[in-house]
Design goal:
Length: 223
């Protein structure tokens, strides 16, 4: 992980270095000699500082984003095995639902923010399951359960679509959120109480650790 960050950091500094000097060097006789010349492609005079500022901003954005990813991954790493990580994420999602259910029709901004937060949390969570856990379930002769669970993820996305379409001030918003919460709660219960424990019982320590590391890695990129 550190290596990835280091390489990103060095890419970042070389980009801003070359572009910050671009305005001065455009059209100079140095064109064509090595890496410094990347600055001179066909940007006009005066574009350099603007590009440098843009790249600088992007670099700060990247740094902030990766900082957040590492923080989130660190938090996940303290939770434990893959099934405990996923169960903690279920609880987090259900807590967001409860906040949504505590809003009224006038709190449209809050509703939209909570829906965005929920969408992001469920997106990351379902990606971890669909890219790692469900394929592993299928390999372990649990294809029927994996297919059912993955099918339900489709309806989770449908609820998100419908909530976005109906608008945060709709009189039926709370009813829709309640129905949505029911589905997620039932789905999480099936995973936590039936499918995951049955699957985990047959895993040895190495297989279990492998799935945990894959879930953590997928979660890192989706954070
Ligand atoms: Fe799921
Ligand atoms: Fe889940």
């Amino acid at each position: 992980m550190a290596t990835r960050t280091q390489s990103r950091t060095s890419n970042r500094s070389s980009s801003s270095r070359s572009s910050s000097s671009g305005g001065n060097r455009a059209g100079s006789s140095n064109r064509g000699s090595g890496s410094e010349n990347r600055s001179a492609f066909s940007w006009g005079e005066g574009a350099g500082p603007i590009i440098a500022a843009a790249l600088g901003g992007a670099a700060i954005g990247f740094a902030a984003n990766y900082g957040r990813k590492f923080l989130m991954q660190g938090m996940e790493a303290t939770v434990g095995d893959w099934d405990e990580i996923l169960a903690a994420e279920h609880d987090m999602a259900l807590a967001i639902f409860d906040k949504m259910l505590a809003t009224d029709q006038t709190q449209t901004f809050k509703r939209k923010m909570l829906l965005m937060k929920l969408t992001h949390a469920l997106d990351k969570h379902s990606h971890q399951e669909e890219m790692v856990v469900y394929p592993a379930l299928r390999e372990a002769n649990e294809a029927v359960s994996a297919d059912q669970l993955e099918g339900e993820h489709g309806y989770i996305k449908t609820f998100i679509f419908e909530l976005n379409e109906m608008g945060a001030d709709s009189p039926t918003w709370l009813e829709k959120v309640r129905e949505f919460r029911e589905l997620v709660s039932r789905h999480a219960h099936m995973e936590e109480e039936e499918v995951f424990p049955r699957f985990k019982r047959d895993l040895d320590e190495t297989q279990n650790a492998h799935i945990t590391s894959l879930v953590n890695r997928d979660g890192f990129w989706m954070a």
